[in-house]
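**User:** Everyone, produce a chain:

**Assistant:**
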Amino acid sequence: MTRQVLIINITRMGDLIQMGALLSRLQEEWAGAAVDLVVDRRFAQVAALLKGLRHVIPFDFHALIDESRAAVKDVISLYQDVNVWVKPLTERRYDRVINLTFNRPSALLAGAIGTQDIRGARSAWDGGMVVDNPWMAYFCDFHQFRRFNRFNLVDVYALGGSGPGAFTPLHITIPDKDHAWARETLAGSSQWLAVQVGASDVLKAWRPHLFGVSLAQLSKQWHGGLAFIGSSEEETTIAEVMRVYREAGGRNPVKNLAGRTTLSQLAALLAECRSLLTNDTGPMHVGVAAGTSVIDLSVGHVDFQETGPYGTGHWVIQPELECAPCGFDQVCAHHACKDRISPNLVADLLLHVLKSTSFPSPVSGARVYISDVDEDGLSRFRLKAGRESSVTAWYAAFWRRYWYEIHTGICSKLPAPDGPPPDPKQARESIQGLIPLLETACRRAGEIARLAGQGPINLSQVKQLQQEQGVEKQRLHLVGMNSAATAPITAAFLRQLQSDNVKGLDRLARHHGCAYRTYLSRVLDIQRRLFGAHANDVRLASELGLNMPQAGPIQQVA
């Protein structure tokens, strides 16, 4: 019997391209699986480039949101319209629904289509949103500890939507006629560098005049052509780049193709180019999937560890600032990251890629990374120049191993980080501060569950215990988020608490009790990994019925 899978992905171009590994992994898991995709109508043409889809199901979600905001239709009419559209999908009885869009509208859609196996956001019984799959929950939470995240979104999609498996590079199918068009369009030079100077969000874009200076520097030693890509809205930015480029002595052949290509023509164009110099954009992922070497300028709130070019042989330049990347909810007053990347560094790296010159040295003000595939078959970035803080480097390696092992049940092939943690005092204080708080919280949660399961329920007593539990939760949050040794599992605990899709006070109490016990078992496991086992841990685990994670390597601290 053929398995059927429905993927919901209704956000951006790049998110669709980044599904490539998931589509391959599903076929590895279920050979011959029929995979359908729900997509916003604006991006249906992107889906046509992807391999492994049976049906592409477009819907004008943009118009739906606009109509609901403008009250063009009443709420009941909007729900009726969506239900009529959803009905054929419900009747297909999918074996799995994978929702890669983390908002309430998509959660409602996933819940309406329904199946026993929904991965990603889905609607709760009370109209809220819950995320059950651990990898999908991780994706929702890592913004709280993003400098320690080392999972590319492509791999999170594949692990959460399917599971671990062989590495598969991103790939798109480009029609022959578009390859022919691209070769004819680029006939004026033997080599071409594609350049995108804009981005959908100006905060993600390097400064135009610095693009111009770096390209002019490149032209002194490399005489291929420059092909500007992007949307027609980037014409003004491209004009500024060209003005600076010409004034600085740039003389390469130039073609401005921004806003002048179809999506498949853009893919073919990138496939014909030697490399792509770009900000973090959707076309960057198209270039990766077309087999083009990418140089990614990672500025603003962009974190290349999350959304950078996937696979092998791509380059990333990131400003060497403690605040880089900034958080999504932060307002930057200086944008200094855009000035930390030197045009000379960009030009030298381009020469290294295009002419095989020596790697730029020395490098100051920025970090340079190259992408490859790690021992677990996941994409990674290796630092080639610049410095990371010792705390960031050590804990990034630690948490990369930890989450892979916890969520897959497979021992990671990556080596453990060298030596003890760089902040043993702070790590130990955070862990030892959490354990007694969690022991009390677990016992209180158990008492609430016991009382809630009795009849009649003593509501005043339960309410008092819940108030105490609320105060305790705030203390746990403050202590847990204060250390790199505990912040990620604290965020996971809070997510587990929120995913309370249960009816009834007794079930809610048991759900909360499970979350507290999971949190405590992970704290004890982290303590064991960092500082060795404590005799008291065994007692606690036994008394509270903790399900301890699989053993991992221990970083002994004197």
Remarks:
- The chain has a mean pLDDT of 89.
- The chain has three domains: 4-133, 176-387, 424-544.
- The CA atoms of residues 392 and 453 lie 45 Å apart.
